[in-house]
Amino acid sequence: MDIAAAASVFTDPRAYADDARFHAAAALLRRESPVHLVEHEKFHPFYAITKHEDVMSISRASDIWLNAPRPALGPKSKDADRENIPIRSLVQMDDPDHTVYRHVSADWFKPAGVRRLRDRIAALAKRYVDHMADLGGECDFFVDVTSHYPLYVILSLLGLPEEDFPRMLKLTQELFGADDEELARDGDKHAQMAALIDFFNYFQALIAERRKKPTDDLGSVIANAMIRDVQIGELEAAGYYTLIATAGHDTTSAALAGGLHAMLENPEQWQRLAADPSLVPTAVDEAIRWVSPVKQFMRTTTEDTVVRGVPIAAGESVLLSYPSANRDEDVFDNPNTFDVGRSPNRHVAFGFGAHYCLGTHLARLEGQALYAELRSRVRSIELAGTPEYMEALFVGGPKRVPIRYEMA
């Protein structure tokens, strides 16, 4: 593989569905061109940032490196669409707005807030392992278990009715799976905007309801939030809901299913976890590092700067490659080995700096509850087929993890 072929992985959704191809390419770039200019006819140019240190450094300098106007990589056509959408979530915001809007929900996702959910999350983890038992020893771990479990946690937090959960799951898959013909709406890779519009229409109705009759859920907090002494706008509230309702479950689902896939390909790691409950927290963090469900965010510099000797002019953009940073040989011992006991684990799958993921503590608690339930109740487990992964440029992970098992 040459450098040009390696750089093509960042513009090819199929690369993220092919773990070996992507990580071979990323390793080559880390060695030979860690800050690499990527030029492709369908994309505006950008520099791919592949080293852990550089991802952290750029993320830390949020006064220079901005999310706007290009928060995530997409083709030129989607960049143009984004400019015409009058809706912003935390992903599109920079300071001073970012800090103000982030504060609206921050207390719900701090450790103290998340601890209040411990019993509910443990009960849901048991519910889905019970579901595995009911399925008779064979299931699709992603489709039947992890695609639903974190979804129920986050949508319950927002206060959505359970009968709407399947619709939210489908819309999330259509939004994040827009580059995958199997997941895109009607197989149309250009239908992502339709899914986004459906989200906003749904949440605008929720905003009106929660403003009329507030309850004690996060949905009411967002709908009635005051931003600089003015009630949050409907478009900003709908953007807030959509971010939490999608990223708040899909990334965790992907990490947990991909982590189990890795353990079943390395059965000694599953045996270590099964034998030692103290490894549950490190196993969850390793699953998150391994899958890195958020593949990239973009940053645009406001001034001429230099990254690892490469000059980058004001107005130019970089892609922060989290999967590459999380396999950086300078940071992780044996980075291509899944290690349920890895410690320390300095992964950047939750981002870093001002835009560090709000749901970090919730994702870890969900993962620990499910893996703890699994390791205590599953007597034996193996793959029952070949797992398949999403074709995606932004957020992705498994779409099938078939397993065969015996319950204790």
List the helices and strands and how they pair.
Blueprint lengths: L2 H5 L11 H14 L2 E6 L2 E7 L2 H9 L4 E2 L9 H8 L13 H13 L1 H5 L2 H17 L3 E3 H6 L2 H10 L6 H12 L15 H21 L5 H6 L2 E2 L2 E2 L2 H32 L1 H9 L4 H12 L4 E6 L3 E3 L2 E3 L4 E5 H4 L34 H18 E6 L4 E2 L8 E3 L1 E6 L1
Parallel strand pairs: 2-10
Antiparallel strand pairs: 1-2, 3-7, 4-14, 5-6, 7-10, 8-9, 11-14, 12-13
Total strands: the figure is 14
At CATH level 2, the architecture is Orthogonal Bundle
* Largest sheet, spatial ordering of strands: 1-2-10-7-3
* Oligomeric state: single chain
Helix vs. strand class: alpha+beta
Coarse morphology? globular
- Sheet-strand content, in percent, reads 5-15%
What about the largest sheet? Answer: 5 strands, mixed
Low-confidence stretches: none
Helix-residue proportion: 40-55%
Count of alpha and pi helical runs:
17
Distance between the termini: 47 Å
Q: Which class in CATH terms?
A: Mainly Alpha
- Which fold does the CATH topology refer to? Cytochrome p450
What number is the mean pLDDT?
Answer: 93
The domain tally reads 1
CATH superfamily: Cytochrome P450
Compute the gyration radius: what is it?
21 Å
Describe this structure in words.
With 408 residues, the chain is an alpha+beta fold. The protein has a single domain, classed as Cytochrome P450 (Cytochrome p450, Orthogonal Bundle). The protein is built from 17 helices and 14 strands. The chain has helices at residues 3-7, 19-32, 52-60, 76-83, 97-109, 111-115, 118-134, 141-146, 149-158, 165-176, 192-212, 218-223, 234-265, 267-275, 280-291, 322-325, 360-377; strands at 35-40, 43-49, 65-66, 138-140, 226-227, 230-231, 296-301, 305-307, 310-312, 317-321, 378-383, 388-389, 398-400, 402-407. The strands form 5 sheets. The protein has a 5-stranded mixed β-sheet. A 3-stranded antiparallel β-sheet has the order 4-14-11. Helix 9 packs antiparallel against helix 13 (234-265), helix 10 packs antiparallel against helix 11 (192-212) and helix 13 (234-265) packs across helix 15. The mean pLDDT is 93. GO terms for molecular function: cholest-4-en-3-one 26-monooxygenase activity; heme binding; iron ion binding; steroid hydroxylase activity. Belongs to the cytochrome P450 family. Keywords: Heme, Iron, Metal-binding, Monooxygenase, Oxidoreductase. InterPro entries: Cyt_P450 (IPR001128), Cyt_P450_B (IPR002397), Cyt_P450_CS (IPR017972), Cyt_P450_sf (IPR036396). This is Cytochrome P450.
